[in-house]
Amino acid sequence: MRTMLIAGCMGAGLIIPAGCSPPHEGAAQPPVAVRPDGPEASTSYESRDLAISFSHAPNRSVGACTGDWQSEAPCLTLNGTVDGEAETFFSLRSFDGPLEQIARDQAGFAPDPAGRWMTTFGRFESVEVESMVGSGWTGMKATVTCGVSDPATGFHAAGGDCLWMVISDGRRSVVAMTDGVHGLDADTAATLQSIRFLTP
Q1: Sheet strand arrangement including 43-47
Q2: What pLDDT shows up at residue 67?
Q3: Which end of the chain has fewer CB atoms < 10 Å from its terminal CB, N or C?
Q4: Cα 134 vs. chain centroid, distance in angstroms?
Q5: What is the model's pLDDT at position 138?
Q6: Given this model, what pLDDT does residue 122 score?
Q7: Among residues 134, 75, 70, 72, which one has the least CA distance to residue 99?
Q8: 75-82 β-sheet, strand order
Q9: Which of 158, 169, 33, 154 is nearest to 102 (CA)?
Q10: CA nearest to 91, candidates 157, 10, 5, 23
Q11: pLDDT of residue 163
């Protein structure tokens, strides 16, 4: 079960256009949101383990992280079907800590000598990190070239596009990750945008 999210400056409406600086803790950011209440005809889900809530399409379901998606951090997956096959669209993992710390530690984001946040994960050249905002959180995202495997043949190639996304309310951060095969659709984008941090 592999997945892919394609980054585009305005494609999913989740980012601030290229040229804007990634958010810093406490920095004011203009609101950018698409379908902020989640997918149309959505189902609400709340995870006390991750301390978040979100909405998802009713034909998708939340599951436990297994295999490549397993993590020592609290973790869940969003699942559905593609062409009749069960697939995992992305994982969500939760960490204590502010945005920039978790972005460095868990997503491989780091400022370059010019102060631009760039990726350090991925197969080829670094990709500039983009800023994003949601309801009560700021975030960073990037899509990098990554390895994907065909479970039928065992073939492993560096042909996938993997999303790394980190959002934070300043105290706690959530990392969203895909691993390379399916494109970003409107329901996945809306689910990621709909994430809310639960109050302690």
Answers
A1: 43-47, 52-56, 196-197
A2: 81
A3: C
A4: 13
A5: 98
A6: 63
A7: 134
A8: 61-64, 75-82, 85-96, 172-177, 156-168, 137-149, 130-134
A9: 169
A10: 5
A11: 86
Backbone torsions φ then ψ of 104, nearest 5 degrees: -70, -50
Rounded Cα distance between 37 and 34, Å, is 9
Rounded Cα distance, 191 and 200, in Å: 22
Residue with tokens 């009749």: 84
Structure tokens at 138: 């700021």
C-alpha of 171 from chain center: 18
The mean pLDDT values, 10 residues at a time, for the chain of 200 residues are 35 38 40 46 91 95 87 92 88 96 95 94 81 96 72 52 91 88 74 93
Name the residue with tokens 């984001």. 109
| Predicted local confidence at residue 34, as pLDDT | 36
H or E stretch covering 86: strand 85-96
In the CATH scheme, what architecture does the domain 43-197 have? 3-Layer(aba) Sandwich (3.40)
